[in-house]
Amino acid sequence: MKKVKIGIVVEYNPFHNGHIYQIQQIKKMFPSSKIIVAMSGKYSQRGEVTCASFAKRKRYALKNGVDKVLKLPTQVSTQAAHIFASESVKILNKQKIDYLVFGSESDDVERLIKIAQIIKKNREQYNQLIKQFLKKGANSFPKATNLALQELSGEDISMPNDILGLEYVKTIIDNDYPIQPVSIKRTIDFHSEETYLDFASATKIRQMLKNNQDYTKYTPMRFNYFDKLRNNQKIYRRFQKVIRKYSTEELEKFKMISEGIQNLFKKHIEIDKYDDFVQECTSRRYTSSRIKRTILMVALKIKK
């Protein structure tokens, strides 16, 4: 009997019990299956350094039921949700996956399919609405897309995994990929700072790591001295050098530098700590994730 191929887009930052639960659920749904994951490399979708190397996260994934791990290129893994999701699905489609599985707060794939179809049929209007909302009230891109969606379809998709889920489904629908999307209800909220039984979000576990708290109940991963050396401050130092060295015009050649964001960076570049700089630059217009991704693009000197 031919094994069905299951694709998952992941960060495993870190790989934790929630991921093990997801893999177990997949194996229950598809007993004869091959699980292929597309995973972020050194940097996460938020533009931060991952808490462990790609090789280490891959090892834990393979040990816990994943059959194949693909490495997402940095220019995919560090993008906003719509680019991150669409490019990741395209990579998995080349693996000829039958199903794409993702975690979801609402766990309503049919609703996501319906919304994706509405967007496809009204693409021009949808894009126009996004532009309008971006101009109106200096909304961030995620906020503008959600407002556009509400106006177009009456639907509100604002939870992190549902946002990604919709982007996955949109990519499948837009490209007519022969992939069936499948959602699995999340065991705990994406950025939750609470724990539940043996489950904690990746955000919570990273926080525990940072604060030297015991995280071992929530993840099979174990972290050492070298893992703890992985931090965003080094990236920020590189970023500072570039911002100081180049003029505002020269900075425009780097990816994600637009709308004069480099002026904001130059204004605050003497702030010493990465977290403080991000906080100072975050606004209604620029989300912290947008700031972090741009810092990374500039630090790595990735051009448009």
TrEMBL record:
Enzyme Commission (EC) number: 6.3.4.-
Pfam families xref list: HIGH_NTase1
Keyword Ligase: yes
The entry's keywords: ATP-binding, Cytoplasm, Ligase, Nucleotide-binding, RNA-binding, tRNA processing, tRNA-binding
Subcellular location, record wording: Cytoplasm
Coiled-coil regions listed in the entry: none
Highest rank taxon of the organism: Bacteria
Catalytic activity: cytidine(34) in elongator tRNA(Met) + acetate + ATP = N(4)-acetylcytidine(34) in elongator tRNA(Met) + AMP + diphosphate
Keyword Transmembrane helix: no
Principal location: cytoplasm
Residues reported in the UniProt entry to bind ATP: 9-22, 103, 161, 186
Primary enzyme class: ligase
One GO cellular component, as annotated: cytoplasm
GO biological process: tRNA modification
GO molecular function annotations of the record: ATP binding; ligase activity, forming carbon-nitrogen bonds; tRNA binding
Cross-referenced NCBIfam families: cyt_tran_rel (TIGR00125), PRK13671.1 (NF010192)
Family: Belongs to the TmcAL family.
Function: Catalyzes the formation of N(4)-acetylcytidine (ac(4)C) at the wobble position of elongator tRNA(Met), using acetate and ATP as substrates. First activates an acetate ion to form acetyladenylate (Ac-AMP) and then transfers the acetyl group to tRNA to form ac(4)C34.
Protein's UniProt name: tRNA(Met) cytidine acetate ligase
